[in-house]
Amino acid sequence: MKLSNWLDWQLVAGCIVILVAAGIGVSSPSEYVVQVITLGALYAAVATAWSIAGGMGGLLLLGIISFFGVGAYVNGILFTKYGISPWINLMLGFLVAAALGRLIAALTLRFGLSEDYFAMFTVGISQVLKHLLLNWEYAGQATGIYITIIQDDFWMMSFVSRKPYLLIGLALLLGIVVITYLIQRSELGYRLAAVRLNNQAAEALGIDSVRTKTHAIVLSAGLSGMVGAFYSQFSTFIDPAQVFSLATNFEMLLGAVLGGRLTIIGPLLGSAALKPIQDVMRGLMGGGADALYLVFYGGLLVASCLLLPKGIAQYIQNWHKRHYAKSAPAEKQALAGEIK
Amino acid sequence: MSTPLLELREVTKRFRGLVAVDHVSFTVGAGEIIGIIGPNGSGKTTTFSCVSGFLVPEEGDILFEGTSIRGHRPSDIALRGVARTFQVVQPFEDLSVVENVVIGALRGGSVDLGEARDYAREVTEFVGLGPVAEQLAGSLTIPGRKRLEIAKALATRPKLLLLDEVMAGLRPSEVDLAIGLVRAIRDKGITVVLVEHLMRAVMALSERLLVLDHGALIAQGDPRTVIADEAVVEAYFGKAHAHA
After folding, report:
1. Mutation test of the interface with chain B: which of A191, A205, A261, A332, choosing the one with the most B Cβ atoms within 10 A?
2. Are strands B6-15 and B18-28 parallel, antiparallel or unpaired?
3. Which residues 275-314 on chain A approach chain B with CB closer than 8 angstroms?
4. Phi, then psi, of A206 in degrees rounded to 5
5. Could you tell me if residue A151 is inside a domain?
6. Which of A14, A126, A305, B160 is the S-S candidate for A66 at Cβ 3.0 to 4.6 Å?
7. How far is A335 from chain B (nearest CA, A)?
8. CB–CB of B52 and A204 under 8 A?
9. Does residue A194 sit at the B interface (CB-CB below 8 Å)?
């Protein structure tokens, strides 16, 4: 591990950000602060998971919320109806969401849907799922599912305090950041870069673009499902309108896009910036005029899109390159991470 | 007779009404260097695209090592041992030169990354791109890009290499180097089929020459005999010259 390598640097920086967040959260007496950091971590986790398909794979997997919502319901149902441990449900949430991702990939890629239709298809699926659950009596229909937590029970991921959830949320985020780092360094990272940069050239070199894209979608989907499963346990209440909300969907994606979707640290930083800004604004302008803060928030997003078209991480990467070019000019740079 | 490496049987490809490749049949034996020439629009690149799987011919069959590959995915055909370059070069511009070659060397992911890196380094040196290996592919000059196109294809460890106008846009001295490179590739035991407009290169390299005109194969055989063929002269220069 060398800090002069952009990928390694990002991993270290990501760990530091997560540790700092954990430190602030654990030492804070305010339950509100803990709540904001945990939610921020979950948004960052989904944004990072999304960047596997949406960033590295260059796929317009717009409807990431489908997988998050499915994961949330996997835990919601299995925990309340069968008393299955949420720790197991994290895995099952991964598997069910990954299977949904596999199905979507099969339907869209084999039929050769063009990018824009693929994007719309994935958004459409999220709304189909929402309406299915709104009408599914067993899953509580529009009322949703309530998770009751009476006493601390680690195996059942039940805690009276909010702080253990904060730590689990940050651990999930850390795990997903490490996974993206490993992918960037692996053979899959090369395949994804090839398919994203030039699908035809990739095929000519023996890379099955459908298989590669499927891998990316399944990973993004599964990891988002895992985060969703945790979310239901953390929030103790889920309903279809909430866990398949398009507003949440795009908020998660914005973190990735504003941060820089081709980097490891971008989605993390983007989400880390977005969630608190949103809450501070709501605090300043909230109250009766609940929509006012959204106007400013929207304005801020528009401004950042115009001013930071490649995301925050691009500037960090440029700085990193200059900094280490000075100190070690002959140092070989990161491989698949050298992506603009 | 042993099975040819590549065999085209009555291959026909149409684009709406236009017949781009018209019942073309030929074979390529292992170890040969074969040239394909023909005026613009005669179906040379379309033939390559049919063999490499980017287009599926409406009629006929394509056999590689005796097995039909018609309708197979391009990636599958590449892994069977047919590599191609593109007339309009297709580098992964945001990756370095050697990373571009690594992508080929991965053979679709079946080769370990470390091994692919080592082999990519070797191939990059072999085609003469060693000194610029760490540069971004997008920063290469035209001759460099043509070499990179060859390097990526070679890295897949092909049995058959289809070169689509790799000499176009090169200066005479660069053409000489490129001719040397193609010979070196053949000496590694790789069969080469090249589509080329540059007659000097075609004549220097080809052991056998095929001529396409309006999608049809109008002549094939020894290069010197073929270019003197009346039909070939006519295809290139029109009737007046043929009878002059």
Report:
1. A205
2. antiparallel
3. none
4. 90, 10
5. yes
6. A126
7. 7
8. yes
9. yes
Whether residues A207 and B153 touch (CB distance < 8 A) is answered with no
The per-residue pLDDT for A19 is 96
CB contact under 8 A, B116 and A187: yes
Average pLDDT of chain B is 92
Searching chain B, which residue's CA lies closest to the CA of residue A201? B90
Residue A214 lies in domain: 6-245
Q: Compute the average pLDDT of residues B51-78.
A: 95
d(CA A116, CA A114) in angstroms, rounded, equals: 6
The structure tokens listed for A44 are 């960052």
Q: B92 and A333: CB-CB below 8 Å?
A: no
ipTM for this prediction: 0.91
Asked if residue A206 lies in contact with residue B111, where contact means CB atoms within 8 angstroms, the answer is no
Give the pLDDT band of residue B14 (cuts 50, 70, 90): very high
Q: Is the pLDDT score of A330 beyond 50?
A: no
| Higher-pLDDT residue of B182, B229 | B182
A201:B73 CB<8 A: no
Paired strand residues for B212: B217
Report the domain count for chain A: 1
Residues of chain B above pLDDT 90, percent:
82
What confidence tier does B237 reach under pLDDT thresholds 50, 70, 90?
confident
Selection from B166, B148, B225, B175 nearest residue A198 by Cα:
B148
Mutate to test the interface with B, among A5, A186, A190 (most CBs of B within 10 A): A190
Q: Which chain B residue shows the shortest CA-CA distance from A198? A: B92
| A chain contacts of residue B49, beta-carbon cutoff 8 Å | none
A54 domain-assigned? yes
Establish if A226 belongs to a structural domain: yes
Calpha distance B178→B100 (Å, rounded): 20
Q: Which amino acid is at A48?
A: T
The predicted pLDDT at position A338 comes to 42
pLDDT tens digit sequence for B156-170: 999 999 999 999 889
Nearest CA-CA distance, residue B232 and chain A, Å: 32
User: pLDDT value at position A186?
Assistant: 93
Q: Which residue of A has its CA nearest to B97?
A: A335
Q: How many CB atoms lie within 10 A of CB B216?
A: 16
Q: Which residues of A touch B87 (CB under 8 A)?
A: none
Give the model's pLDDT for residue A336.
Answer: 42
A229 assigned to some structural domain: yes
Which residues of chain A lie closer than 8 angstroms to B92, CB-CB? Answer: 193-194, 197-198, 201
Rounded to whole angstroms, how far apart are CA atoms A147 and A234?
9
Q: Is B236 on the interface with A (CB under 8 A)?
A: no
Task: Please count the other Cβ atoms lying within 10 Å of the Cβ belonging to residue B128.
Answer: 17
pTM: 0.90
Of B200, B177, B58, B56, nearest to B127 by C-alpha is: B177
